[in-house]
Structures are given as C-alpha cells and as structure tokens.
Design brief:
Radius of gyration: 23 Å
Low-confidence stretches: none
Helix content: 40-55%
Oligomer: single chain
Bound molecules: adenosine monophosphate, magnesium ion
Length: 496
C-alpha cells in the first residue's frame, strides 16, 4: 500500500444488474511511461497528485495494477452507426475503473481507453496508438476550456508496446473522465432485446445521476426524455457556434448526460464551409457540419423509441409524448444557436434582425472562404475601443476579407442603434470568440513529433496554450494562425 491517498471509488454502475456489463480488468502493458497528468482536473476530482505521479499511480493509469476500490468493467451497448443498426457493441478498448465523487458531490466515471481486449472487442486489439490519445487529450481539454460540456482527459501514458495499424505505432492509454458513459445506444441495447426491466432500471439510474429534477415531475420518464433533448440541443448549438465537427455522431457516441464524447475524427473548421466533412470514413457526408443538428434529432428519436413503454401505459399516448418531445428539439436547438450567434456578434437581442445578420455574415464568409474562428475574433476587436492593454490584436495574422465591407456597415449600423457601452460589449465578445482552437494542422504536427521523434514538448505547449482560448498574446501567433494551403488537413482518421 502506498503512503499517499488513492482515489476513493464509489461504483454505482457495478451495482446495476450484471447484464449491463462484463467484469474486465485492463490488460497489463510492458513498460508504461508518463506523458501528462491533468493537474487541474485531478484537483477538482480530489485525486491526489502525489499519488498520480507516483510509481503506483503510473501502473494504475497503464492498467498494470488496480487501485483499491476499483471494480473494472466493460459496459455493453448497441448503436446505429452511420445509419445502420448494430445490435451489440460495447467498450471494446476501454474499461471503467470506477466512479469518483468530487468535492461538490458530482459523480464521474474514470475510464482507461486503449487498455486491452474485452468481450466487446470483436476483431479489434483493444489498444490505441499514441496519436488518437494525444488528439483526444488536446481536443477534449480545449472543449472544456471553451465551456463546452465534454468528457475530460485526466492522464495519458505510453505503453512501451507497439500497435499495428497501417504501420507499427507506439501504443498509449488515455484516462478519460466523464459524468457517465451512458449512451443513447445503451438504452437501445436493452430496448431492442425487449428487456423492459433493464430499460426501466437504466432510466432510473440516469434520472438519479443526471436529471434528479425529472424524478419530481408528473411523468418522470417524459421529463427525462425532454431534459436529455434539451441538453443535446444546447450541446450541438455549442458545437455549431464554434465550428466543431464531431465526425462520428453514431448513437453509441451520444451520451445521455449531454456531454461531448468520442474524439475520433473530430475537427474544428478553418475556412468556413457549411458542408465541411473531415472524417475519412464519412464518405456520404452524413456527419457534415450542417447536418449535425438534424442528426442529433435523429439520434434522439431512437432514445424516445427505446423509452416508449415508460412514457405512458397507453401506447398511443406514449407515441404522442415521445413525438412531442422530439418535435420540440428543433426550436430548442434554433433558439440556443441563434442566441449564441447574436452574442458572438455583440448584438443585444435575438430577433429577425440578428438572425438575418448572422445568415448574411455566414454567406459572405462562405463565399470568401474566411477563417471561421478568426472572423468572429476580428469582429470582436472591431466592436469597441481596442482590445485593451492586456489583449493583443490578431490584425497581424488575420484581416477580414474586403467582400465583408457591405455586411460590416450593416452590422455597425445595428450596433450603433443599440444602447450600451461599446467597451462592455467588446469585453463580452472577446470572451465569447476564441482566438485559439485546436487547429488540425497543429494537432497533426504534435502527433508527428511525438510519434516519430518521441518529442512531447509540442504536445505540452499546445495543451497549455489551449487552456486560455480567449486570451491573445502575439508571441503565440503561431497557434492562432490559420493553416497555409500546404498545411491544410483535408482528412482526419479515427486511427483506432
Ligand atoms: P467508435 O467508432 O470509436 O465509437 O468505436 C465503435 C466501437 O468499436 C466501440 O464499441 C469500440 O469499443 C470498438 N473499437 C474501436 N476501436 C477498437 C479497437 N482497437 N479494439 C477493439 N474495439 C475497438
Ligand atoms: Mg465510440
């Protein structure tokens, strides 16, 4: 036993019936090496930094040893993948070590990803190459810093083993933290087997864990469905306003908690294009940027279907309640999106005028191929006196396309017509419009340095830079600059 305190686990999912999971220890690896520990997250979770940094901590993060109280499991689920039904999936390269409760009483899963084979691995090796681990660490933490609900990354370690993909690559394991890993596909799994008892138990578990207010509602399961839909609508609105493309919105990759999960082929757009697709496996563009809001609704309809028997004893009434909840999604999404977008432009109210201004701006950006992130940032700079002494301007690395002039005049006229001090408006805009996003070419660059040269310094620097996405300093211009044509990343890969 070590001297320093180990995490205090309290594992609620293991207390569910055994058909929800398989007990599965991680498979040991040859020679673990520490890449990074997320100290801020460890502190939030009350997990000792001293322990994480100890020899024992490393062995636990690599899956070579179990911490006391850890009851590792692989969970079962099903999914619609690219629209096609898969009746049985599950954690094929991940195990849930256990759950911890933070100082504010919030419960989190602690999961190892890339930890070896499980009964759900099918043909896979249960492992992960280093690249996808670094990508998930960077992007999930960037999303958290941008205020988007998301799974987090507590640690990344190398395994000292190779994994075979298109070539032999160094292996790694990510410690993923999430408020749960219960997916739409988890409900689908039980519903598709007509296991009503399990659907009921799972719904009660989710209410207790994520939506306690639903328990007090007149129809708790209708309230649960409505609450999941509302959170998903807000989540996708957040993705859209940031130009984030998830890339693989299968129903197993949609958490009922409303957090973003599964950073496989995800990417932030550079130049704005409404139908942008990055994922190499998304041949039909099913998960293109502009399709994300509609796909989320399609996924939620499957959740509604799985919950149907719980919504009402009467079948027609159940269908009606489910349909109403699904129909409400569109307005919830649009309200959230329109509100976020008008705030990005510093406008006081969401109305026809603000919506038209957003639409016209996006149209002009599309025609000009303007950088999505920096266009909004530059508008923030133009909206008030100056960025202020503590914030440098991005003018040296980015200028608005000339073709935006007519739009700029309309926007300025609207701002002038609205009351309110310009300095305050600008302060809010600068806080809403990031200058740093995890640009694909930077992510690729750090993956190459780590994979080919064993150099993790660029990774650490990028992670640190992305922790403060709205605070610009000219010395970090490199991280803010859009890719030159030869740096542009056209395709992203799951790399699993
Ligand atoms: P994803 O597309 O990442 O959501 O993964 C879909 C399914 O494939 C999940 O059930 C994963 O656990 C499984 N999977 C992905 N990669 C591997 C791997 N290397 N070994 C075993 N299973 C995997
Ligand atoms: Mg997945």
């Amino acid at each position: 036993m070590s001297q320093v305190s180990t995490p205090k686990f309290d594992n609620s999912y293991v207390r569910l019936p055994e058909r929800f999971y398989t007990r599965q220890a991680p498979e040991p690896v040859r020679a673990p090496g520490m890449i990074r520990i997320n100290e801020a997250l460890a502190r939030q979770l009350g997990i000792s930094l001293e322990w994480l940094n100890s020899a024992e901590g490393l062995q636990v993060l690599a899956g070579n040893q179990l911490a006391p109280g850890s009851e590792p499991i692989a969970t079962v689920y099903a999914a619609h993948q690219f629209g096609g039904w898969n009746p049985r999936l599950g954690d094929g390269r991940a195990v849930l070590l256990g759950e911890v409760v933070d100082s504010r009483g919030r419960r989190f899963d602690v999961q190892l990803k890339g930890s070896g084979r499980t009964p759900y691995s099918r043909g896979g090796d249960g492992r992960s190459p280093l690249g996808p681990v670094l990508r998930e660490y960077i992007v999930s933490e960037a999303m958290a810093a941008l205020g988007v609900p998301t799974s987090r990354s507590l640690a990344a370690v190398t395994t000292g083993e190779k994994v075979r993909r298109e070539r032999s690559l160094p292996g790694a394991i990510l410690t993923r933290v999430s408020s749960s890993h219960i997916r739409i596909g988890t409900f689908q799994y039980f519903a598709s087997r007509d296991d009503q008892e399990a659907v009921h138990i799972l719904a009660d578990h989710v209410i207790k864990r994520h939506y306690p207010a639903a328990a007090k509602a007149e129809r708790p399961y209708v309230a649960l469905l409505q609450a999941v839909i509302a959170r998903q609508a807000n989540l996708v609105a957040d993705w859209q306003q940031l130009g984030f493309i998830h890339g693989v919105m299968n129903t197993d990759n949609m958490l009922v908690s409303g957090d973003t999960v599964d950073y496989g082929p995800c990417a932030f757009m550079d130049a704005y294009h409404p139908d942008k697709v990055f994922s190499s496996i998304d041949e039909g563009g099913r998960y293109a940027y502009s399709n994300q809001p509609g796909i989320a609704q399609w996924n939620l309809a499957w959740l509604a279907r799985a919950l149907l028997p719980l919504l009402d004893e009467d079948e027609d009434a159940a269908v009606q309640a489910g349909q109403q909840a699904i129909d409400a999604y569109e307005k919830q999404y649009l309200d959230a999106y329109n509100d976020l977008m008008r705030r990005k432009l510093g406008l006081a109210r969401t109305n026809e005028k603000s919506i038209t201004l957003v639409t016209e701006l996006l149209q002009a950006m599309h025609e000009a191929g303007a950088d999505y992130t920096l266009t909004f940032r530059r508008l923030a700079e133009l909206a008030g006196p100056t960025p202020g002494p503590e914030q440098a301007s991005i003018a040296g690395i980015f200028e608005l396309p000339d073709t935006l002039q007519p739009w700029l005049e309309k926007w300025r006229a609207q701002l002038a017509a609205e009351a309110g001090p310009a300095a305050e408006r600008q302060r809010q805009m600068l806080a809403l419009n990031p200058v740093f996003i995890p640009r694909n070419h930077l992510v690729e660059e750090i993956i190459r340095a780590a994979t080919d040269k064993d150099d993790f310094e660029p990774f650490h620097q990028l992670v640190e830079r992305l922790a403060m996405p709205c605070r610009y300093d000219e010395k970090d211009a490199r991280y803010a600059t859009p890719p030159r044509p030869e740096q542009m990343v056209a395709r992203t890969f799951c790399g699993t």
